Fold each of these.
Amino acid sequence: MTTAEPSDLADWVQRTRQGIAEGRFPARAFNDQSVYDLEQKHLFSRAWCFLAHESEIPSAGDYVTRFIGNNNIIVARGEDGTIHANLNMCRHRGNVMCKSEMGNSSHFRCSFHGWTYKNTGQLIGVPYMKEGYEGRLKRKDWAMVPVRIDSYEGLIFGTLDPESESLGEYLGDFRFYLDLYLKHGEQGCEVHGPPDHWLANTDWKICAENFAGDGYHTPVAHQWGFHLGYFPSSGSTHSQGWAASVPGRGHGVGLGHSPNFPPFGGFPPELAEEMKTVFSAEQTEVFSKVRTAVGTVFPNLSFLMQPFSLVPGEPGVRFVTMRLYHPVGPGRMEMYSWCLVPKGASKEYKDAAYRAYTLAFGQAGTFEQDDFENWAKVTRSAASTMVADVDFPYSMGMDSDPDPNFVGPGHVVTPYVNDTNFRNLWSRWGDYLANEV
């Protein structure tokens, strides 16, 4: 992999930011040690990052362990029902406190020297406290390191920056589009089963970009889906729709629309009617036209919603997948993938949606295999010495005017196949790397 000299890195970031404004982005960014290190230092140390869905820890004592950058975090529900997040590290000598990725425990006990904490992070037990410390150690001063958290519609986010803006400000107008994935009925959504979880030789940014609205690849990488009847659209109509982004925030969504696709098609009729009472009038007008929706919450949380025919040619079942791309090194990431289902839906529909998700975007899903094969090859190419100064074109739609008839917020252009969302994504990424956020 290529690596920039530290003295050159700041200049490279500024040149990259200028290139983004002109419709270019460097290939090297997708597999470079110095870029990865800078992302850890300036991006993941400050941005709001997704940790878990509240339905993963429904009961007192439930917990999961997740990551923000290179920091392992315990997200746990306390005995009072409140959710807490703490660095997964003992304050005595730094041992990992919780070695399981999920479970239930009211307390965590260090396997090294036995320090014991409530799952809220409070230190309550120190072996040989009186004999060893002779009153010099106060338990209240040595709690686990807390992580600031907040939530939106069941999504728990954390930030390592105590001075950062609120989560509401961070998400901004993109909450309008997030509701498309999260407010399926009055009870909202829940995760269905544990997340699929695997390692891949893929850079996280390729995935985040793809799910920020890349409808351009679908008729090529997934063309079999059209030919065999798994899509309720065709290659010629798939590009229709809108690309919506929140300027200056990095968030973006691609909304695919097919002229003959029924409003809220793929949902049970009773659920579709219930959603109309949950969404605002503007949301209902937009969402009822949407066939496929792929979106990314900056930096590395993405969603996809689409109908998928369990039997080719038959009406599709609408499913939602939520996915997190956790970087573990240059050109390498840990993938988490969940299925979201309407909490108030029937078991029959939940099972059908989960099956559609598994066949399409589970770890061994057909679409997932298409994507990861391409993403891994892009990542490998990005490490080549010859591409150190090679840029990719991001100029599609640079002259597009906002759609004056679209009632949703943000910068919205048509068609859905467009680079506008990507330029917005990389502009925000550049702001963080330049330490200007």
Amino acid sequence: MADATHAADTISLAEPTIRPREAAHFGKLAADWWDPKGSSAMLHRLNPVRLAFLRSAVDRHWSGDHDSVRPLAGKTALDVGCGAGLLCEPLARLGAEVTGVDAAAENIAAARDHAAGSGLDIRYMAGELGHLDVGQFDLVTSMEVIEHVADKGAFVAALAARIAPGGLLVMSTPNRTSRSRLLMVGAAEATGLIPRGTHDWNDFITPEELRLLLAEAGLAMSEPTGIAFTPTRGVHLSSDLSLNYLVTAVPSA
């Protein structure tokens, strides 16, 4: 991995963004993270949709071969808030040299065990991103994470500091709307689709707010793409941003 820049060293002195209660909550889910019918079932439904968006973003950014099965060959990737590796492993199969970082040590232990069982060489690290000497990466991803951090500005700045020159950031997060409050916090947690206590709606962030945070960190954000759900199509990419959305960002010119 490339050495971290001075900017990354500066970020490492920032206040922690991890909330201990959030890390503890997700750490308790580590044991069945890879069970598609377990507590992380919704993440298993989301993952193919996120990967489809990510693959398209990678092909556009690096003008790659759309038919290649390893479009990230020769590139490095960092997944922040990696959980037990649900995104790290596909990134490795797409050819990247992958590092995963998570606040919960239990998740990192589960991620290492699963990667070993899958024959994948992935570097996993537990702790605060801004305090870890991980270096810089061609691709940085952070999916469904920013809504759980204490200092969103510091977190985005830490992500920006990990992007290598010419690199790409991909993020996803719930939108703060009346519909997300009703469905993602109310209905989904009440029915067990999402573990109870996972979300605080007040911590959700709108696309406009995320755009400003990224701009403050020196990044230019794409137009967001929604993640929607219907009974007929299931979870899918959409122009509807009311529940969840994905964006890419690159260093500003």
Amino acid sequence: MRVEINADDYGLTRGVTDGIIKAHREGCVTSTTLMMNGLSVEYAVEQAKKNHELKVGLHLVLTWGKPILNNNTSLIQSNGNFKYTSSYRNMAPPLLEDVEKEWRAQLEAFRKTGLTLNHIDSHHHIHAWPPLVGVILKLAKEYEVPVRYADSLKDYPDICWTEKLWTEFYQDGVTDNLFEQLKKENVLSVEVMTHPGFVDEDLIENSSYLYTREKEVELLCEMRVPEWVQLK
């Protein structure tokens, strides 16, 4: 089984970035996805260029912080932050043309880093929101990059990075029996979504998912990878 262990939120804060790098260098994290509107993007890019085996993708954002473009008024609230939150499914969908413009700007900002774009996913899985599927399909094909699997994308296996997304390594599911659980899955490829990181002041101010990130770092560094796993 091909297993991709991806760390979300790269560049969100310096502490998160350091935790991801540690979980890669000393553990089993194989890839990460960069938030282009994060608080520590330049530092994250510098660290990625020092760790050439770490694959870096783009963590598309529409539900946290400020947009790359500041003229898409349909996406933002009065303070300039995105108006969408993790509860976006209860909100009216945005103008698709504005979403495409913003995500294209995030893709282009990633390109300017000089890093190779490995894949695309999104903060709070908003790329998989059915109203936005057409946008992500268009961008994935144009930029020739695979996208994180979601049920809303199951009819487009040609653009999906893996056959399945494992989301259980989160909160109370952060345990050391990850590979035992994965072995039960009847798929050839799976992505494990993780959120390792060290808690710093910026993270406390911007996220509700805190000290379990440090537990993730610890476990991802301690886990032994079974022989049946093709860790890519």
